[in-house]
Amino acid sequence: MSSALFETAFFKNFNMIIIPAIFSTIRMLVFSMLFGFIIGTLVAILLVMTSPYGLKPKPSVYKFISFWVNMIRSFPVIILIVAVSPLTRILVGTSVGEKAAIFPLTLAAFPVIARYMEASLLEVDKNIVMAARAFGASDMQIMFKVLFPEALPSIISGMTTTVILFLASTALAGAVGAGGLGAVALTYGYQRFDDVMMYCIVAILFVMVLIIQGLGELLYKRVKTR
Amino acid sequence: MIEIKDLTKKYDNKAVLENINIKIPDGRIYGLAGQSGVGKSTLLRCINGLESFDSGSICIDATELNSLNEAEMREFRRSIGMIFQNFALLERKSVLENVMLPMEFWKYDRAHMEKKAKALLERVGLGEKLNSMPSELSGGQKQRVAIARALSLDPKILLCDEATSALDPAITLSILELIADINKELNLTVVMVTHEMSVIKSVCDDMAIIEAGHIVAEGKVEDVLLSDAEPVRKLIGERKITAPVGKDLIKLVIRGKEEHPEAVCELARNSGIAFGIISAEIEPFHSGEYMGHMYLTVDPEKAETLARKFIEYGIDASSGKEFYL
Ligand SMILES: Nc1ncnc2c1ncn2[C@@H]1O[C@H](COP(=O)(O)OP(=O)(O)OP(=O)(O)O)[C@@H](O)[C@H]1O
Ligand SMILES: [Mg+2]
Questions:
Q1: Is domain B240-324 classified as CATH 3.40.50.300?
Q2: Is A136 in Cβ contact with B105 (below 8 Å)?
Q3: Terminus of chain A with fewer CB atoms < 10 Å: N or C?
C-alpha cells in the first residue's frame, strides 16, 4: 500500500519537481526582499528627510525621488521583468533563471517597501519629533532613535504585506523564465492540464502565505507590546 | 532673561505674530494666555528655535537666536526643556528610557544617564514606575515623565505648551504644584502657554494675553486679571451683572491685603448703610494672596457714599447699574 503511494507519478513529481521549486521560490523571495528592503529603506530615509511633512523639507528633491519611485511602481512585475531583461543580462549574465529574476524582483520591490516605510515613519506623532528636536536631536538622531523605533510595528506589518504580495509576484515571474513554483504550476497546470500538480502548488502557496502572515503577526505583537 | 523684541512671524505671508515684545526675568513663571489659534504655541516654539521668525529678535541671556547656526542652535536647545499637551512620550520605550532619551542625544555615558533619570523620576514621584511603558500610565503620570525628561539636560528654561489641558482638575493642580516647586528648587524660568485662566492664577507670576498675534495685555498676573481690560473680559468670557430693579451696584476689587474681606464686614456694621452681597469671586493667587471681585447691591441714593467709604478703607470701589463680571 505504502509502496504503491511512493511510486505514484505524483510522488515522484513532488520530490523531483515541487520541492526544488519551493526552495527556488523561497530563495528568490528572500533575496529580492532582502535587497529590496535595504534599498527601500535608503529611499524611505531620503523621502522622509525631504518630504514636505518630513524632517528637512526639500520639495524639489522629494518630487524627483517620488517621480521615479512612482514610475517603477507603475510597471506590473511581469512587464518589468521583460522590460529590464537587457539590463539583467548585463548585470547577472543571463536573463533567465532564479538569479536573473532576483534583480527585477528587487527593482519592483524597493519602491513598494520605500512607500510603506515612508508612510510608517511619517505616521509617528509630530509632537514626539518636535520634542526630540527641542532636546537638541539632529535629523539623523530623530530618524534612527525616534522614527524607526517608534514606527517599527507599522514597518513590520507593511513588510508582511509586501512579502506576501511578492510571493505572488515571484510565482508570476515563473511565467517569464524565473523557475520556481510559478513555472511548475504553469507548465503542468496550464500546458499539460495536470490539475493535481497545479492545485498542489496553489495549496503550497496558500500555506506559505499563512506562514508569512503568521510570522509577521507574531513579530508585530512582540514589538508592539514589548 | 528671555527678551523678545518686535517679533514678527509669518506663515504664507500672513502674520501670525506681530510686534511681540516680552521680557521674562530669570526664575519667573510666565503665562501666555489666549484663545485657540492666536499664536501661543508658535511664540513658544520661537523661543527655543523650533520655529523661525521673520523680523525682530529673541535674546536669551546673551544669545541672539538669529545669529546661531544649526549646530549652535542644537547646543542652545539643550538649555531649554519642553513639555506638551499630549505628553509626546515614545510609546515603545519604557519610562526610564524616555527620560534618558535627551541625554542619549548628547551621548552621556550610560551609568550617568541611568542614575540621573532615576533621580528625576524619583523627584516627580514615579520612582516605582521606571520600567513601565507609557501606555500603562495615567495622563498625570505621563506628564510627570515628560517633566522628568524635560529636566534631564539641566535646562535653565522650561517651556510648557498646554501642559495640563488634557488633564482633569485635580491632576492639573498636582502637576502645576510640581512645576511651581521645581521652579523654586532649580530657579528655573517657566513659560506656560495655556487657555485656562485657573492655570495662570494658580502658578504664574506674570502674564501676557495674546489676541490674533498681538499682545493685548501684559503685566503681573493680579494686575492684568483684576483690571477690567477688554482682553481679560474676552478671555474669561463676557458675563454681565446688572443691578436689580431699584438698586445700584457697587463693585469692589479685593486684592492683596488680608483685612479686605473683613473690611466689608466692618462697613456693614458701622456705615449705617444696608447693602447685600450678590456675587463674590475671591481666589488664592500664586503669590498666596486672595484676590478677586465682589458685587454689592445698595439703594441708589446711598451708592456714592458707600463707595467712598470703601475707598477710604483702601478698597477700590465703583458704583453703577451694570458691570462685566
Ligand atoms: N505650519 C503652519 N502653516 C501655516 N499656518 C500655521 C502653521 N502652524 C500654525 N499656523 C497658524 O498659525 C496660527 C497660530 O497657531 P498656533 O498653533 O500658534 O496657535 P495657538 O494659539 O497655539 O492655538 P491652540 O490654542 O489651538 O494651540 C493659527 O492660525 C494656525 O492656523
Ligand atoms: Mg497651541
A1: no
A2: yes
A3: N
